[in-house]
Amino acid sequence: MKINSKSGLKTRRIFGYVEINLRHVLGKTWLCPSGALRMIFPLKFLPKHEAFLLMEIVYKFSTIETCDDYRNLFNDLNFFIPFDYATSGLVVRNNRGVVQSYDLLNINFTEDWISAYDEQKIYLVDVTVEENFKYFKTQCWRETYKKYDNPKKLLSFAHDYNLTNGYSCGAKAFGLYKKPSMISFVWNFEEKCEYISSIIDYITPYIHIALSNVLCVEMLMTKREILTGREKEVASWVKMGKSSWEISVMLKISEATVNYHIANIMNKLNSANRVQAVAIALQYGIIDFD
After folding, report:
1. Residues in domain HTH luxR-type (predicted)?
2. What is the pTM of this model?
């Protein structure tokens, strides 16, 4: 165990990872990739007690699994980023970079705003979205609006909901759920604050990891419940290489019924054939490998 000269934290290397002794702060140690050590001790301009508080939030973002825990951490983050509203999500884009769909994990944006934003397809003209997925850097909305000559439809929409300024950030696809992210913090401040921007820069990859992991777990739980007990049974036999006729004999049902179940499995898992259906079922833990 040695003392890190910059942070004063006790660390030791273990097979490419660094164990950081945070017992005096969090009551535990933290094992992280060695390459991430330079990011662990936050921002030099923070007082030490605030730096440790931010480290605790970072640690929790790295380990949470539920949507409620994720939202609660944003309440803690509000100590550093004085936002009124926040939201986050992972997106799917086409070859031209246009958003096709998104998985939203909202913090406290109103349902009216979310519905109107989706129904009016504001994301297609939202220059903060374009800027995020082009550069993946922290941005101040007003500066982005100026860069794109103050887009009228977007600004009119923002004024309707009194959400005219904020910061957005995001990360390229990594984590369990391999999709890029966008996170937005909204409050109507007058001038850009480098202090806030630096904190958002620092915290972005950890929010992305949490967002990716939480949405992945949620998706897995949804997928696991998508097949009936009989369909899981049929899929398990297909996995073993059994034909429809062989499965019908073992389950004492007709071959037509087996094929009916297989067709349902393929439809529910959006697969082209029974082999792909089994692969998807295994990937999402719907059926076991053994």
Report:
1. 220-285
2. 0.69
